[in-house]
């Protein structure tokens, strides 16, 4: 067996963070060296937190100290849009490759983090979606847009999600825009009698964000042509479904330079 990859997890006490902690502890090729949570989480053993045996890594809330003391090679971040940018910048500052699943980054932030990564000579990944099915849904939608330029994106998430539209919807929209001339859809005279009814505007098409309790993560891209519609849909049912993708990202990110945006780049090789 080769050297284990040393991993820190930020947001370790969150729903995605706990899945990551469990996945890292269960993979003999990975070593959990730090788990970062909120001040209330301090001192909890990361293994016990996820229903495994104590692993000797206690949750801390001081990310910078944890990075300096535990010397991870990779930091996985599943926190909140408000924290993730600073966490990622801090990881890069200490030469730790970030693998970020938190959504809500702006294009300017990604560009800045890419510069930081390049200055430091390390790789990083910001991936709005780590599920292979979702990556395929985005690629198929981008392909379909060549033949069906009229489309709308509808994404569904739980009602506590902070950012809208979802990172996956934005990434899908960007991929579609690469395959389709900007085309303002709908009736040029259309008017909203209730503001926001037509959804968010991107490159001439609309994105709708549904937020409901009981929903996990789904997205459909609906295409309309003469006498026909085409729907490309992906449904995620549980958080564990993202873990094969996060595991692959931890193992591949060290081969890259600069900040990669989108897990599709890692899937293609
Ligand atoms: P969550 O359960 O709210 O977890 C976030 C955790 O991070 C919470 O425990 C939060 O603590 C903690 N936190 C916030 N700031 C922190 C900081 N500076 N240091 C350490 N911990 C901090 O949310 P989630 O469902 O796990 O989702 C997390 C993010 O991942 C969201 O942006 C979501 O959209 C995204 N997501 C991405 C994918 C993907 O495939 N890329 C999949 C699912 C979800 P408090 O609760 O005390 O604030």
From TrEMBL:
Residues 133-265 form the Dihydrodipicolinate reductase C-terminal domain. It catalyses: (S)-2,3,4,5-tetrahydrodipicolinate + NAD(+) + H2O = (2S,4S)-4-hydroxy-2,3,4,5-tetrahydrodipicolinate + NADH + H(+); (S)-2,3,4,5-tetrahydrodipicolinate + NADP(+) + H2O = (2S,4S)-4-hydroxy-2,3,4,5-tetrahydrodipicolinate + NADPH + H(+). Belongs to the DapB family. GO terms for molecular function: 4-hydroxy-tetrahydrodipicolinate reductase; NAD binding; NADP binding; oxidoreductase activity, acting on CH or CH2 groups, NAD or NADP as acceptor. One of its GO terms (biological process) is lysine biosynthetic process via diaminopimelate. Its EC number is 1.17.1.8. The keyword DNA-binding does not apply. Pathway: Amino-acid biosynthesis; L-lysine biosynthesis via DAP pathway; (S)-tetrahydrodipicolinate from L-aspartate: step 4/4. Pfam families: DapB_C, DapB_N. NAD(+) binds at residues 11-16, 101-103, 127-130. Keywords: Amino-acid biosynthesis, Cytoplasm, Diaminopimelate biosynthesis, Lysine biosynthesis, NAD, NADP, Oxidoreductase. It is found in: Cytoplasm. Homotetramer. GO terms for cellular component: cytosol. The active site is at residues 157, 161. This is 4-hydroxy-tetrahydrodipicolinate reductase. It comes from the Bacteria. Catalyzes the conversion of 4-hydroxy-tetrahydrodipicolinate (HTPA) to tetrahydrodipicolinate. Residues 5-130 form the Dihydrodipicolinate reductase N-terminal domain. The gene is dapB. (S)-2,3,4,5-tetrahydrodipicolinate binds at residues 167-168.
């Amino acid at each position: 067996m080769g050297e284990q990859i040393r991993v820190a997890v930020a947001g370790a006490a969150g729903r995605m963070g706990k899945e990551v902690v469990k996945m890292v502890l269960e993979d003999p090729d990975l070593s959990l060296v730090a788990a970062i949570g909120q001040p209330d989480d301090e001192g909890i053993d990361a293994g016990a937190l996820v229903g495994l045996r104590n692993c000797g890594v206690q949750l801390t809330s001081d990310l910078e100290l944890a990075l300096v003391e535990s010397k991870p090679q990779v930091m996985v971040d599943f926190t909140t849009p408000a924290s993730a940018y600073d966490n990622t910048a801090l990881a890069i500052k200490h030469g730790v490759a970030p693998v970020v699943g938190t959504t809500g980054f702006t294009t300017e932030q990604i560009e800045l983090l890419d510069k930081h990564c390049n200055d430091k000579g390390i790789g990083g990944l910001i991936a709005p979606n780590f599920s292979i099915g979702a990556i395929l849904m985005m690629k198929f939608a981008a392909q379909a847009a060549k033949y069906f330029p009229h489309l709308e994106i509808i994404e569904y998430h739980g009602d506590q999600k902070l950012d809208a539209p979802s990172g996956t919807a934005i990434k899908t929209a960007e991929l579609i825009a690469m395959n389709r001339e900007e085309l303002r859809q709908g009736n040029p005279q259309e008017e909203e009698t209730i503001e926001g009814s037509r959804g968010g505007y991107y490159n001439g098409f609309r994105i709708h964000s549904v937020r409901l309790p009981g929903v996990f993560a789904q997205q459909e891209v609906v295409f309309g042509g003469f006498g026909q519609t085409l729907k490309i849909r992906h449904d995620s049912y549980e958080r564990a479904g993202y873990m094969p993708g996060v595991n692959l990202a931890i193992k591949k990110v060290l081969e890259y330079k600069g900040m990669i945006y989108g897990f599709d780049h890692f899937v293609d090789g």
